[in-house]
Amino acid sequence: MQKITSFTIDHLKLQPGVYVSRKDPVGNSLITTFDIRMTSPNEEPVMNTAEMHAIEHLGATFLRNHPAYGSRIIYFGPMGCRTGFYLLLAGDYESADIVPLLKEMFIFIRDFHDEVPGASAKDCGNYLDMNLPMANYLADRFLREVLIDIRPERLVYPE
Predict the structure, then answer these.
(1) pLDDT confidence band for 4 (50 / 70 / 90)
(2) Percentage of the chain surpassing pLDDT 70?
(3) Is the pLDDT of residue 9 over 90?
(4) Residue 26: which H helix or E strand, with range?
């Protein structure tokens, strides 16, 4: 069986950043999948599910309500390895195109101190597994260490 694209990336060289994972034609449109890598794979501890869950709820809420991108958001959710998130957008994009959007989103997550949207038994299948303070911390760290002055090598997968 052929490896899927994401398993062909050298995770020993991969660092936190924003990468185009793939571009898929759907009818007459294109969907761009972004790899939003928040931790160094196999080098540092992965994120716990509680903070990832809070980031997912906040990020998805922010993105789907965004005035410019909201109608283009297909999906935002966690990677199974717990080192980052996938963002799927309708359209043909490069990594640098969405850095301003991601800065907005991570500032929103960093500064959010209210009840997490959808964090109730009625709205979520695992609503108790949320850690907002850690989500705030991780959003701040990703902003400071990656997004604010993102380097070109953090926008293209390593060779």
Answers:
(1) confident
(2) 100
(3) no
(4) strand 17-26
Rounded-to-integer distance, Cα 46 and Cα 81, Å: 7
Rounded to an integer, what is the distance from CA 23 to the centroid of its chain?
16
Residues 46, 100, 119, 74: what is their CA dihedral angle, to the nearest 10 degrees? -90
Closest to 30 in 3D by CA, of 86, 89, 70: 89
On whether the pTM is more than 0.90, the answer is yes
Q: How far, in Å, CA of 115 to CA of 145, rounded?
A: 27
What lies within 8 Å, CB to CB, of 95 at 6+ separation is 17, 18, 19, 20, 34, 155, 156
Q: Would you say residue 130 has pLDDT above 90? A: yes
Q: In what order do the strands lie in the sheet with 29-37?
A: 17-26, 29-37, 84-90, 73-78
